[in-house]
């Protein structure tokens, strides 16, 4: 008599099929949380206006990084860094993860 594997026992008990590795999302598909606040969505808050509850809306352009951010979080983070430069309504700084240059509008990020 052969003992069943853990996965086979789960299939028998749950009466369902477990997903195969190809059915599971890869790391890049799951990486939708903000690289600064680590949340998937912004909190529901009147201060955030139309961005309240929004997901990430800015991605680092570096192909080796591609880290997603909420633009509100990135603007706040860039404001806290002394090397960040501003020209009119655009902030110029570096990605918190790969240090590649990033540029983001401050007006559209806030409202």
UniProtKB/TrEMBL annotation:
One of its GO terms (cellular component) is Fanconi anaemia nuclear complex. GO terms for biological process: interstrand cross-link repair; protein monoubiquitination. Coiled coil: none annotated. One of its GO terms (molecular function) is ubiquitin protein ligase activity. InterPro entries: Fancl (IPR026848), FANCL_C (IPR026850), Znf_RING/FYVE/PHD (IPR013083). Residues 30-106 form the FANCL C-terminal domain. Signal peptide: none annotated. PANTHER family: E3 UBIQUITIN-PROTEIN LIGASE FANCL (PTHR13206:SF0), UBIQUITIN LIGASE PROTEIN PHF9 FANCONI ANEMIA GROUP L PROTEIN (PTHR13206). This is E3 ubiquitin-protein ligase FANCL isoform X1. It comes from Rhizophora mucronata.
């Amino acid at each position: 008599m052969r003992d069943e594997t853990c996965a086979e026992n789960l299939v028998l008990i749950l009466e369902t099929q477990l997903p195969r590795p190809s059915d599971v999302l890869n790391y890049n598909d799951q990486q939708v949380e903000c690289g600064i606040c680590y949340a998937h969505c912004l909190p529901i808050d009147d201060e955030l206006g139309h961005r309240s509850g929004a997901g990430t809306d800015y991605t680092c352009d570096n192909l080796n990084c591609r880290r997603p951010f909420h633009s509100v979080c990135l603007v706040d983070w860039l404001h806290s860094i002394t090397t960040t430069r501003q020209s009119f309504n655009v902030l110029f700084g570096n990605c918190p993860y790969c240090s590649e240059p990033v540029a983001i509008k401050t007006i559209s990020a806030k409202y």
